[in-house]
Amino acid sequence: MKISNNTNNIDRSAGAQFVQDMERDKNKRKKSRSLKPLRKIWPFITKYPGLLGLFVFFLFTASMTSLVMTFAFKYMLNCGFGAAGNAANLCEIAGFNPSDGRGIYFVFFIVITSLGALLGAARFYTISILGQRVVTDLRTALYNHITGLSPVFFEKVRTGEVLSRLTTDTMLVETVVGSSMSIALRSIVTGVGALVIMFVVSWKLALMVLAIGPFIIIPAIVLGKRVRKYSREGQDNLATASARAVETLSSIQTVQAFTQEDTERTRFAEAAENTYQSQKSRLAVRSVMTFIMFGLGQAGVICVLWYGANQAAAGKMSPGDIGQFAVLSVMAMVNFGFVITTWTDLLRAAGASERIVELLGEVPQITAPENPAVLVNAKGAIDVQDLTFSYPTRQDETALDHVNFSVKPGETVALVGPSGAGKTTMFQLLLRFYDPQSGQIKIDGIAIKDLAPETLRQQFAFVQQATPLFSGSAMDNIRYGRAGASDDEVVAAAKAAYAHDFIMKLPDGYDTDLGEKALTLSGGQQQRIAIARAILRDAPILLLDEATSALDAESERAVQNAFAVLSKDRTTLVIAHRLATVKKADRIIVLEDGKIVGQGTHSELVKRGGLYARLAELQFNLED
Ligand SMILES: Nc1ncnc2c1ncn2[C@@H]1O[C@H](COP(=O)(O)OP(=O)(O)OP(=O)(O)O)[C@@H](O)[C@H]1O
Ligand SMILES: [Mg+2]
């Protein structure tokens, strides 16, 4: 396989794209119809009863305090401003004597407000910490679970979707636990409390304020929907613009070479302009909404106060009562407003938790048997018996068709055949990434189904066709083969893989950061790191899938020599298109359309004629 710069660009933009998409995803993620799914994350919350209990305590005390504050306000108004007559009596009834000096009312007000602020801060802290705790647990639980799932799962569900669940969905849950839920609960408790006290202070006035409610709430709901529609539209347009930008900027040479700069500029400007238009509409609706909620609400409350003032003038209510009532109505209104605005957040988080729980419930297809067989340091005998297999996503096509062969310990066997013949598939079944529809594979006489997948996979060192490496240093990447290996062992493996020289030339040698997917290396260099990783693994069976395809003739020769040494006392299966690579194998198995069509040494197969002879003739004659 050739790894060109093109693939590098695609990979790089894919990463950037993902980061881009995350913010947009948050708003695009499907909402749930009800809040029921939120219950599914309840166990994650109740794991911390202490924090939860503290939060509930602070929730109620803080709300209570803010309600009591309205009484402090009332006494401050009635008694703190040198009240006389009726009001003075009220002050005494409440246990305050105006002759003590009016400072006491202010002090009481200050104390209760400070207490309220303190409790509010404590409530904020406990719930935010709980939110962070829950989301951390969810993320780890998800990652732990996902990494154990079989390849079939990743074929069904796109990696982008899985990542969205891991990041965006957990983020949504965090918002809900850490803030929306807290705001909603706090608003309900305070709002209801305020309403109750309003009725106690004056049920007539309370009913009047309630009558204003629908005039504010109904437009808020209707306009709120509009706002969300426009903001989603804006985000979609922005996402299209940035996606194209990421793609074009990461391949700017292609754009410039084809002199398409102006086309791209126009395209980007259009998308940006569309975003502006949607945002403009959104902001207009939002402004109207603000006007209705504040303007109408305030006017309504002031009308009610006007009526109250007449009552006070008639001596039916104290000025403090009116003042307290005004504060309470604003409190009620603001808090119910909060409940409305957080509702969508809650629904969105419910959708998120549904997807998270669904993912956590996904069962791996490949599991260990109840009593796994023991296999330590296998000798490396492989028996493939009547193996038939189709990929789960492509059931109607047989990737392997009644395949039979066996490999003796220490033998080197090559698998050759046209592209799509089923060679890589064979390796995947050996590692038990899939289970066959019929037939079985045995290692040292033990059916691989009877082994724990980890035990089985420990017997293999694998160089994949598309050499995936991870970000990190050369040292890290090679050591991925065997976690406990010493630096010297890593260097020895690198030398055997013919990688030492180029690694030493990197700016920081073995400690050079290779970048995402090690894309700062050339294709052949990546391949040699992957080979070093497999060499270091030191497992009984070596699987090489086009391991040297990206190397020049000289490096390939050197790496082949290393493999020759390595495979002396271990079983080796080699896949290669370049037949020169496999000429020296003890035996060659020829695959075509999932079937074995020939077996033998190079010279035997050439003599016998058929597919291999044809391939060999093409390759060797062309080279002549
Ligand atoms: N994950 C998959 N899901 C469905 N079909 C697959 C999958 N992987 C491979 N196939 C199909 O299975 C068949 C065998 O593929 P395989 O990768 O084993 O070929 P190969 O012999 O390794 O080819 P190449 O030399 O090109 O690497 C092909 O037809 C391919 O399209
Ligand atoms: Mg292949």
Task: Please characterize this protein's 3D structure.
It contains 21 helices and ten strands. It is of the alpha/beta class and 624 residues long. The chain folds into three domains: 30-201 and 342-364, ABC transporter transmembrane region fold; 203-316; 378-459 and 578-624, Rossmann fold (3-Layer(aba) Sandwich), CATH 3.40.50.300. Strands 6-7-8-3-9-10 form a six-stranded mixed sheet, with helices on both faces. A four-stranded antiparallel sheet has the order 2-1-4-5, with helices on one face. Helix 8 (203-250) runs antiparallel to helix 10. It starts with a helix and ends with a helix. The structure holds adenosine-5'-triphosphate and magnesium ion. Adenosine-5'-triphosphate binds at residues 155, 391, 393-394, 399, 419-425, 465.
With strands numbered from the N-terminus, the spatial order across the biggest sheet is 6-7-8-3-9-10
* Number of E strands: 10
For the termini, the CA-CA separation is: 23 Å
Number of domains: 3
Bound molecules: adenosine-5'-triphosphate, magnesium ion
Mean pLDDT: 83
Calculate Rg over CA atoms. 36 Å
CATH superfamily of the largest domain: ABC transporter type 1, transmembrane domain
**How does CATH name the architecture of the largest domain?**
Up-down Bundle
Please report the number of helical segments.
21
**The biggest beta sheet, please?**
6 strands, mixed
Low confidence ranges: 1-20
Strand content: 5-15%
**Roughly what percent helix?**
55-70%
What is the CATH topology classification name of the largest domain? ABC transporter transmembrane region fold
